[in-house]
Each structure stands twice: as structure tokens, then as C-alpha cells.
Amino acid sequence: MRISDAESVVMEALWASHPRSAQDIIDEVAGPNDWSAVTVRSLLSRLMNKGAVSAVRDGRKYLYSPLVARDEYVHEASQNLIDRLFDGQLAPLVSHLSERQALSTDDIRALKQLIRTLPGGDQDD
Amino acid sequence: MRISDAESVVMEALWASHPRSAQDIIDEVAGPNDWSAVTVRSLLSRLMNKGAVSAVRDGRKYLYSPLVARDEYVHEASQNLIDRLFDGQLAPLVSHLSERQALSTDDIRALKQLIRTLPGGDQDD
DNA sequence: CTTGAAAAATTACGCATGTAATTCTTTCGA
DNA sequence: TCGAAAGAATTACATGCGTAATTTTTCAAG
Predict the structure, then answer these.
(1) Distance (Å, rounded) from C-alpha A37 to C-alpha A22?
(2) What are phi and psi of B65, to 5 degrees?
(3) Looking at residue A22, what is its pLDDT?
(4) Which protein residue lies nearest to nucleotide D20, measured between its Cα and the C1' atom?
(5) pLDDT of B87-120, one tens digit each?
(6) CB within 7 A of strand C: which residues qualify?
């Protein structure tokens, strides 16, 4: 199930809160993305076709919900990037980012903190 | 400069070694990807149009070289993913991967090792 | 000098995507 | 009850991409 960039904007809105109406989603994403209302509806309809969202009728409108978990989507995208560009390993990615000065001190702090909670790899060299 | 998936296969071949002839690249990537020779040439020609590769004539053929650095490409892709899915921060990505058991012990070890070399963030809480 | 094969350039074509306009359907208010 | 507006469904259309066939150019061998 491939979710395109534009579609993922709609998915993010749904992951943030659901079920919600098309109008509701339009109100949230159309402006910032410079999209017309129909464009957002098109994206919703494509997502329906792909089976990425579900909809239940509510009077004259539909209320939409995501059918794929954000976690799935995120994982697939992350793993794919790491596999394609970093030989499937995380350390080279981190190394790359640090070389590119793409890590804030906050980021580094959070990382060090997090790393401590990870199991294994406790040898001291 | 957007480099597509198929194009990136050709770029990887060029990043690995250059300059090289079209035939040389075909020999390397056509088989594994089930591509015909002309397909690879098409990709090369699109990359030329985009200005992603350069070519110098060598007798009756061209020798191609990358014009964009792999590092650029990798950085753009990584930063883009982190921005879109992890609010621009690395720690949430690492956290996600660890929760999904996507980190091998080797990976964790390498990560701990690497983290030590990072500047700052040395406070102990 | 001619010609044929290798290489390059051009063209093709179906599908996905970004972005919408148009048309159909339903329902609520006059 | 009827028509207009909201909403949904269908259709559109340019561009990019994956994948290639066709055409043109060029060199090298006869």
C-alpha cells in the first residue's frame, strides 16, 4: 500500500483525530497546503480506493477514519530509507547526521538519554 | 533536484565508481533489476537532463560521472524523513526503531560507541 | 567509400500523482 | 414540494516515472 506525499498529509490529519468529516479535514489541511476543497476530497477518495481509510455515513456526510496505523506507515518509510541508504543500519545514519551538523544539542541529549535505556551493547569499548 | 527510485539505482552505480560508460553501468544494474539495456540508457539520459550526471565523450561513447554528491542526496532524503515523520528530531526515530525491535545488538553497540564521540549533552540526567 | 553494428537520441505508452472542474445526489429550508 | 446548496462521485489533465521501441548518428572494418 503506497501512500503518496499529498495523501500522507490527509492521513496525518486523520491520525491526529478521527473519525472526522471531509469538511473538517479540509478546514485543517487545505489552507496550509494551498489546496482547494475538491483536491482534499480527491485525496480522500483515492485513500478510500486504496483501503487506507474507512468511512461511515453520518446523515448526508461521511466520517473518515484511518485503516492503516501511523506506526506502520512510519516504520515502513524509516526502514526503507535505512535499508536503501545506510545498509540497513542505524549507526551510519546517526553518524551521517552528526557529520552534517544536523543534530542539535537537545537532540544529542535526548539521544544519550534514550540510549541508556536500550538493552545490551553494554561493553565498555 | 528530484532523483527517482529507478534513477537512484544508476546514481549508486556512479557513486560507487566513475567515470564509467553506459555499457559498464548496464552490466552492473540491468540484470539485478530486470531492466533492458535501453532502460538504463533512458535513466542515464534523464539524469543528464536533470543535471545530475555529466558525460564526456570518449571515442564513440560517453563516460558518465555524478554531478551531485551522494552525501547531498543522502542528507536530503534523511532530513526529509525526519522532518516529516519525527518532528525534525532524531531521538524519536531511534525510539521508534527500538520499540519496533528494529535494532540489532550490533546496531546498538555501534550506536553507543558513536554516541560517546558526540559533543555536548554530557549532563547525567 | 560503404556499410553494419554500437551507441546515442528521440519517441512512446500506461500508470501514479498533484491538482482540480464537472456532474450527480441528497437533504434542508422556504 | 421544490430548488439550491452541501456533499460525493466522476472525469480531466499535465507531469513524472518505469519501461521500453524506434530512429538517428557515428565509428570502425572491409
Answers:
(1) 9
(2) -140, 150
(3) 95
(4) B39
(5) 999 999 999 999 997 788 999 999 999 998 887 6
(6) A 2, 4-7, 33-36, 38-39, 41-43, 46, 59-60; B 21-23, 38, 41-42, 45, 48, 60-62
